[in-house]
From TrEMBL:
<feature type="signal peptide">
    <location>
        <begin position="1"/>
        <end position="22"/>
    </location>
</feature>
<comment type="similarity">
    <text>Belongs to the glycosyl hydrolase 5 (cellulase A) family.</text>
</comment>
<dbReference type="InterPro" id="IPR017853">
    <property type="entry name" value="GH"/>
</dbReference>
<feature type="domain" description="Glycoside hydrolase family 5">
    <location>
        <begin position="126"/>
        <end position="366"/>
    </location>
</feature>
<dbReference type="GO" id="GO:0008422">
    <property type="term" value="F:beta-glucosidase activity"/>
</dbReference>
<protein>
    <submittedName>
        <fullName>Glycoside hydrolase family 5 protein</fullName>
    </submittedName>
</protein>
<dbReference type="InterPro" id="IPR050386">
    <property type="entry name" value="Glycosyl_hydrolase_5"/>
</dbReference>
<dbReference type="GO" id="GO:0009251">
    <property type="term" value="P:glucan catabolic process"/>
</dbReference>
<dbReference type="GO" id="GO:0009986">
    <property type="term" value="C:cell surface"/>
</dbReference>
<keyword id="KW-0378">Hydrolase</keyword>
<keyword id="KW-0326">Glycosidase</keyword>
<dbReference type="GO" id="GO:0005576">
    <property type="term" value="C:extracellular region"/>
</dbReference>
<feature type="compositionally biased region" description="Low complexity">
    <location>
        <begin position="42"/>
        <end position="68"/>
    </location>
</feature>
<dbReference type="Pfam" id="PF00150">
    <property type="entry name" value="Cellulase"/>
</dbReference>
<dbReference type="InterPro" id="IPR001547">
    <property type="entry name" value="Glyco_hydro_5"/>
</dbReference>
<keyword id="KW-0732">Signal</keyword>
<feature type="region of interest" description="Disordered">
    <location>
        <begin position="38"/>
        <end position="68"/>
    </location>
</feature>
């Protein structure tokens, strides 16, 4: 059951009745005095806070109680074993295609157009139902039962109720639909109740940091780095999150998958943002939260000696591993995919040992790009030759995605091997977070379906192929 104090629950119900105005008042101010601070990569740290003090929330924000205090996590000693809650607070057409199909409008391709091309009341109604049902407390129970110790929760800047007191810039989120904040608070309480640690991941920034639909806005080129107001608002958003819910999360991820490869100017802006975002977290007193940055698609070696101890403490690198978004990658055999993962380990391990803790924060067992709309709504797959018009196909998509009832026994054997080798990669550094917990019709991407289908073990330490890289 939802375990926030009754006063907070009632407040959030009021917010849902008048999201545009009242949502600005739904906020927690939590105790950010932490049990342990960050540290150098050789030291074990815990970023978990003490339980916030109890109290009734008001419009200006007072302390609210957490439902439980999880055991502090020993980063750098115990591996992160986690799963992403994708598609919950940032829509992705391939994760929940029904939401997009039901609009009857093929031009609605992301959460931005979901808000701009529909009646606002319709968008809010659909999203409210989605926030209520896509992930529930039972999912947290199941995640804990699967031996996982972390969830990574992606969210968009439009869900954070900034007020004019929190930023010198705009507080408008139009055309996005606000209102997810109370559900995020509920999720943080469920996580604490079930002793699951949280990576809170800013997945969508103003102007889009990568132009992908997973940023909220499918656009080209991405505008985040081109407009200083976008960047400063992102820093203010991180400061708000650290101040208001830092006491209920372990890791604050500053931004997901920024496209630093697009230009030297973008890369320079990102480098400065990582520093400013880190400073924003620390400036509000959240000294024990780990702060996560990403490689910006430049590779981890591009961040050698960056935000390292002692100039910074408690910084982590988020590395994403997919082998399906180009034809040469798709042409790899099963063995080639496994060997590539094995060959990637040394570089990650060396970086983590000499720089900052590193986590494989996104990866999956998918070996094709066949999932409907994985490359964007209305965009086909490279695998079957339908990617942006007819191209030379590598094969049929039948049997590679959708329901696992159509997967061959050989394919399921490979899925288990591919899961194990990527877990091994993650546990050679500081851990791993699978993408994603669930998807409507893509079992090859779903941790939940992998557990049901048997290619993901209930015990994440179980190995059928312990010497897979030998």
């Amino acid at each position: 059951m939802f375990s926030l104090p009754l006063s907070l629950l009632l407040l959030c119900q009021l917010l849902l009745a008048d999201t545009v105005h009242a949502a600005q008042q739904c906020r927690l101010q939590l105790n950010t005095k932490l049990t342990a601070g960050g540290g150098d990569p050789g030291a074990s740290t815990s970023a978990q806070t003490s339980a916030p003090s109890s109290g009734a929330p008001t419009g200006t924000g007072t302390a609210a109680s957490a439902s439980a205090t999880p055991t502090p996590f020993k980063y750098g000693t115990t591996p992160i074993r986690g799963v992403n809650l994708g598609g919950w607070f940032v829509l992705e057409p391939w994760i929940t295609p029904s939401i997009f199909n039901n609009t009857g409008n093929d031009a609605i391709v992301d959460e931005y157009t979901f808000g701009s091309m529909q009646n606002p009341a319709t968008a809010l109604s659909v999203l409210t139902n989605h926030w209520n049902t896509w992930i529930t407390e039972q999912d947290f129970i199941d995640i804990a039962a699967a031996g996982l110790n972390h969830v990574r929760i992606p969210y968009g800047y439009w869900s954070v109720p900034l007020t004019s007191a929190d930023t010198n810039g705009s507080t408008s989120v139009a055309p996005y639909t606000p209102g997810a904040w109370p559900y995020l608070l509920k999720a943080l309480n469920w996580a604490q109740k079930h002793n699951i640690h949280v990576i809170l991941d800013l997945h969508g920034a103003p102007g889009s940091q990568n132009g992908f639909d997973n940023s909220g806005q499918r656009t080209s080129p991405p505008e985040w780095a081109a407009n200083p107001a976008n960047v400063s608002r992102t820093v203010d958003t991180i400061a708000f999150v650290a101040a208001n819910v830092g006491g209920m999360v372990d890791i604050i991820e500053l931004l997901n998958e920024p496209a630093a490869f697009t230009s030297d100017a973008f890369a320079a802006t990102l480098r400065q943002y990582w520093q400013d975002g880190y400073g924003a977290v620390r400036s509000v007193g959240a000294t024990g939260n780990q702060v996560m940055i990403g490689d910006g698609f430049l590779g981890v070696d591009s961040w050698d000696n960056f935000l390292t101890y002692p100039s910074a403490q408690g910084v982590m690198m988020d590395y994403h591993e997919y082998q399906i978004f180009s034809v040469p990658e798709l042409q790899r055999s099963f063995d080639d995919h496994i060997n590539f993962a094995c060959s990637s380990m040394a570089d990650l391990t060396n970086f983590a040992k000499s720089n900052i803790w590193t986590v494989v924060g996104e990866w999956s067992t998918a070996v094709t790009d066949c999932t409907l709309w994985l490359n964007g709504r209305g965009v086909g797959a490279r695998w079957d030759g339908t990617y942006f018009g007819p191209t030379t196909p590598l094969g049929s998509c039948a049997g590679w995605t959708g329901s696992s009832s159509n997967f061959s026994s050989d394919y399921k054997t490979f899925l288990r091997q591919y899961w194990e080798v990527q877990v091994t990669m993650g546990e050679n550094v500081q851990g791993w977070v699978y993408w994603t917990w669930k998807a409507e019709n893509s079992d090859d991407w779903s941790y939940q379906k992998g557990l049901e289908g048997g290619w993901i073990p209930q015990d994440p330490t179980s190995r059928l192929y312990p010497d897979i890289c030998s």
